[in-house]
Design goal:
alpha/beta, 2 domains, 22% strand, globular, Glycosyltransferase, GT2 family, transferase, Nucleotide-diphossugar_trans, glycosyltransferase
């Protein structure tokens, strides 16, 4: 019998985590192991929802006080595999699982291992007064997958070797493939770049990507800034690391918008933070 683990990482987002837990507990196929990696967040605790227990492991902050997104995902996968998982699903804490997500990932990873399989993700509007439905079957009425990624219909599979299409919001893998991949590069810390790096690493290692239409997820609404100015320093740091590893900068859409706002500039093939011009009043003693 296939042992399926679902891993999520979180810092805050406690209500979103609880809603994800409910969606997994009410799915057509529950995970055998549900694991949350708490990043510098002692408020995330072991919980039980309708018999589905959420285990919790903790990890501290990374260099410079940054959240260790890459290292946290690696810890979660390693813990799940050590506990006997045959299929590991990584699901962003903001994502609700569609009714067939766990079952679809279990089926495709078991039948066609050796790839990283992802499912379509719908970005939900703000919740209605009563909140999003607790029954994941009712989420199908909200289905509207993000247009920037493949979105096969339920029952369909797509394969691709385009590394830039990979997202870490929702994907699944078998232990042998994860071992070949080596996990996320833990030199990344803070926001941005680590998932695009994983896609490049996979394709460079001969590991293909794929999309499974039945593994649908629904990203809960929360306020965001576009571009994410609060993550500018992380994006520059991680972008430079990505360039060192792959010879190109990721997240160029955001960087170009930062440039339009006068926050960064291009210099010598790199992006650097723009130093604000000091006024006469500021420089006068």
């Amino acid at each position: 019998m296939t042992h399926v683990a679902v891993v999520t990482i979180a810092h805050g987002r406690h209500e979103h985590l609880a809603a994800q837990h409910r969606s997994l507990a009410r799915a057509t196929h529950r995970p055998d192991h549900y694991l949350a990696v708490a990043m510098d967040d002692p408020g995330i605790v072991v919980a039980d929802d309708d018999g589905l227990v959420r285990e919790v492991v903790g990890i501290g902050r990374g260099p410079g006080g940054r959240l260790p997104l890459a290292a946290a995902r690696n810890l979660g996968v390693r813990t799940a595999i050590d506990a006997g998982a045959d299929v590991v699903v990584l699901l962003d804490v903001d994502c609700l699982a569609g009714a067939g997500l766990v079952a679809s990932y279990a089926d495709v990873v078991t039948a066609r291992p050796g790839r990283i399989w992802s499912g379509p993700v719908t970005y939900l509007p703000p919740p209605p007064p009563g909140g999003y439905p607790d029954d994941p079957a009712d989420l199908a009425g909200w289905d509207d997958p993000h247009p920037a990624r493949p979105s096969p219909a339920p029952g369909e599979l797509l394969e691709s070797d385009d590394p830039d299409l990979f997202w870490s919001l929702s994907f699944a893998v078998d232990p042998a493939t994860w071992g070949r991949l080596g996990g996320f590069c833990e030199d990344y810390a803070g926001y941005g770049g680590e998932d695009t790096d994983l896609g490049r690493t996979a394709v460079a290692s001969g590991i293909g990507l794929g999309w499974v239409g039945g593994a649908r997820a629904y990203h809960q609404h929360h306020p965001v800034s576009s571009p994410p100015v609060e993550h500018l320093d992380d994006i520059l740091r991680n972008g430079r690391l990505f360039h060192e590893r792959w010879g190109a900068w990721p997240m160029t859409g955001w960087l170009e918008e930062f440039e339009r706002r006068g926050l960064v500039r291009r210099e010598g093939g790199h992006w650097i933070r723009e130093t604000p011009t000091r006024t006469t009043e500021e420089t006068t003693p």
